[in-house]
Amino acid sequence: RAQHFTNYNAVMPPCIIAAGLGELTRTGDCTAHPRLGFRHKVAAVTTDLPLAPDKPIDFGMLDFCRVCGKCADNCPSGTITKDKEPVEYNGYLRWNTDSKKCTIFRATNKEGSSCGRCMKVCPWDSKEQSWFHEAGTWIGSHGEASSSLLKKIDDM
Question: Interior CA angle at 16 toward 11 and 18, to 5°?
Fold first, then answer.
């Protein structure tokens, strides 16, 4: 069965994480890819065929999000939590977010029907393809101390 936008029977963030296509982010309903950041769309095909499973990946996003919090600081609707730790929700970890606040803000935003500020301010989600950005995300993926350094560099 095809699982795509407006037709999901599966919750995509835990599927993405379990398949090794991304890692948890503070935004709650989004995952980040190590190279693409938030800038990817996901669809899936569910099947009962026997397939070899992939493994989740760990490129340091969880530690980075614990330290950074720029998305929460810049969220105009207050949707994204500033909690230090994610919580278990339906069998997977996620940060508590209030998706309803986000939806209402996007629907009533006089500047347009979108926001995306969380994606715009995330140091991991730069559209810049440069050695500087790649070096920064490499640094940011190596623990909380280096994550703090990446956030400070991004703030410059």
Answer: 100
Full-model pTM: 0.79
Residues shown for the chain: 156
Residue 155: other Cβ atoms inside 10 A:
9
Residue 101: the pLDDT is 92
Q: Are strands 44-45 and 92-94 parallel, antiparallel or unpaired?
A: unpaired
What does the domain layout of the chain look like in residue ranges? Answer: 2-155
Residue 19: count other Cβ atoms within 10 Å of its Cβ. 16
Mean pLDDT of 70-94: 90
The pLDDT value given to residue 69: 92
| pLDDT on residue 133 | 67
Q: Following DSSP, what letter does each residue of 8-32 receive, concatenated?
A: -SS-HHHHHHHTTS-EE-TTSS-EE
Pair 150, 64: CB distance under 8 Å: yes
